[in-house]
């Protein structure tokens, strides 16, 4: 029988002092100066309460933390900055890996190796001028390791698949305290590698990752913003473009209600907009030809389309990189037709109808429907992903936003499969919405074999009954 830790063994200060003395970095515990900031996730809406926070200076510190946690029967988790945080980490030792920031690129072999603290923005800047790109997502502040563990939905996933599918190997500290590489070259690790490729951080603590890079001699992309009144035409132009789009073109459409806040550019402050974002791997003229129906859909208030360096791709969506309280959740759509457009815009097309700041539909599919390297992320044939997002400046508004997301997903039920990528689960969602039953069964089997005591605790635990 597998035993999963759900609460820490009571510990005195002596035990924590033993861990502190084993570190080159630092340990912050309740009562220490800086505790309230050290324990916080990037998503300030998640009020997490770990047992202690290890600020690892290097992989040796990570190994020391894992061995200490195993010896004391305490769960442990890694969190560079906490974009995908949940309350599942309460009572665990939280290991901050942001100092593991080495980047190594072999452009000739099309491979990169990065530490667990490396953010996508930093890796992409390192690729400027190489004619290569990683499978970067919409926010440059997200770490490469965390993104790949969660599957990884990229601007270039239609052409090249998921971030998890690009991983060659992981450097991990496993439940025995061994610090080693897990790759396809080690047959005994086949199940563990499969689970790490998109199954989350529940199986080992990752200190580095080696991943494939992809050809991108030309990247073109940007944003078109229209008045909200043009949203019906803009959304229909989006569906017309995506109906015949090549896999090199990724297009997203949103209805967006901006706050009247100083960080918003003056012409758009407090505005409601229909927004199209797109990237294209290829000639800008061909991209403009493909996107012509969108440009013709209404008066363009803002146009940022231009040739891009790899380091600029993660900035296209202009998502916040400063810690903030936000809720984001999604569901895959098997269809996005005129009726679906009408239903979405009826709910979210005008300010005041919903507390959601943004409702977005991403065109996905393509290579995501074809598995590259075997991994828990699997495949996703659905051509669209719908998301809802809201800022929650005070906790009292969280129930209102939760109800609005529930209502959004109810409205789109006729077109939804009810599933979502791991990183688009929200609140207390379990992994049942993310993986088929057979995948969940295999993930639990890998957990039982690789971590029988339940030492590692991820944002979305795979073990039945563990939250």
Termini, distance in Å?
Answer: 19 Å
General form: globular
What structural class do helix, strand and pairing data support?
Answer: alpha+beta
Question: Could you list the spans in which at least 5 consecutive residues all have pLDDT below 50?
Answer: 1-9
Brief characterization of the structure:
This protein is an alpha+beta fold and 467 residues long. 25% of the residues lie in helices and 22% in strands.
Overview of the molecule:
With 467 residues, the protein is of the alpha+beta class. It has 13 helices and 19 strands. It has helices at 13-21, 35-38, 59-72, 120-126, 144-149, 157-160, 190-196, 231-243, 284-295, 310-313, 338-348, 398-411, 437-450, and strands at residues 26-28, 52-55, 76-78, 93-96, 103-106, 111-115, 132-133, 167-173, 179-183, 205-212, 214-215, 219-227, 249-257, 272-281, 302-303, 306-307, 326-333, 358-363, 384-391. The strands form four sheets. Strands 12, 13, 14, 15, 16, 17, 18 and 19 form an eight-stranded antiparallel beta sheet that branches. The chain has a five-stranded antiparallel beta sheet with strand order 5-6-10-8-9. Strand 5 and strand 6 form a beta hairpin. Helix 8 crosses helix 9. The longest helix is centred in the first third of the chain and has 14 residues, at 59-72. It is globular and about 65 Å long. The two termini are 19 Å apart. 51% of the residues are buried.
């Amino acid at each position: 029988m597998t035993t999963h830790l759900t609460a820490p063994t009571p510990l005195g200060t002596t035990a924590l002092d033993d861990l502190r003395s084993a570190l080159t970095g630092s340990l912050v515990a309740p009562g220490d100066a800086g505790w309230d900031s050290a324990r916080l996730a990037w998503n300030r809406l998640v009020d997490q309460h770990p047992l202690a926070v290890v600020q690892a200076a290097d992989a040796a510190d990570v190994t020391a933390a894992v061995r200490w946690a195993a010896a004391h029967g305490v769960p442990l988790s890694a969190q560079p900055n906490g974009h995908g945080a949940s309350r599942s980490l309460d009572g665990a030792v939280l290991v901050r890996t942001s100092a593991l920031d080495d980047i190594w690129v072999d452009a000739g072999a099309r491979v990169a190796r990065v530490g667990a603290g490396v953010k996508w923005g930093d890796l992409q800047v390192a690729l400027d001028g190489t004619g290569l790109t990683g499978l970067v997502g919409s926010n440059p502040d997200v770490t490469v390791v965390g993104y790949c563990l969660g599957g990884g939905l990229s601007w270039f996933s239609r052409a090249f698949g998921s971030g998890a599918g690009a991983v060659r190997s992981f450097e991990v500290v496993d439940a025995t305290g061994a610090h080693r590489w897990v790759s396809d070259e080690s047959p005994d690790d086949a199940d563990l590698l499969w689970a790490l490729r998109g199954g989350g951080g529940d199986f080992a603590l990752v200190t580095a990752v080696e991943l494939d890079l992809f050809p991108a001699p030309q990247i073109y992309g940007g944003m078109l913003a229209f008045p909200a009144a043009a949203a019906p035409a803009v959304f229909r132009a989006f569906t017309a473009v995506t109906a015949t789009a090549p896999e090199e073109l990724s297009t997203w459409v949103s209805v967006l209600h901006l706050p009247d806040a100083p960080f918003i550019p003056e012409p758009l402050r407090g505005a409601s907009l229909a927004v199209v974002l797109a990237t294209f791997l290829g000639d800008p003229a061909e991209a403009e030809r493909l996107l012509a129906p969108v440009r013709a859909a209404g008066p363009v208030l803002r146009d940022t389309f231009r040739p891009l360096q790899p380091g600029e791709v993660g900035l296209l969506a202009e998502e916040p990189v400063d810690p903030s309280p936000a809720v984001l959740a999604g569901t895959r759509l098997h269809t996005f037709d005129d009726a679906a457009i009408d239903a979405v815009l009826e709910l979210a097309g005008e300010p005041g109808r919903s507390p959601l700041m943004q409702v977005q539909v991403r065109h996905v599919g393509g290579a995501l429907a074809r598995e590259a390297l075997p991994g828990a992320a699997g495949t996703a044939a659905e051509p669209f992903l719908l998301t809802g997002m809201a800022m929650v400046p005070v906790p009292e508004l969280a129930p209102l936003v939760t109800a609005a997301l529930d209502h959004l997903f109810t409205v789109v039920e006729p077109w939804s499969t009810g599933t979502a990528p791991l990183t688009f689960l929200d609140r207390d969602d379990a992994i049942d919405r993310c993986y088929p039953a057979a995948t969940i069964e295999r993930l639990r089997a890998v957990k039982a074999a690789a971590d029988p005591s339940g030492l590692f605790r991820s944002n979305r635990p795979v073990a039945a009954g563990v939250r």
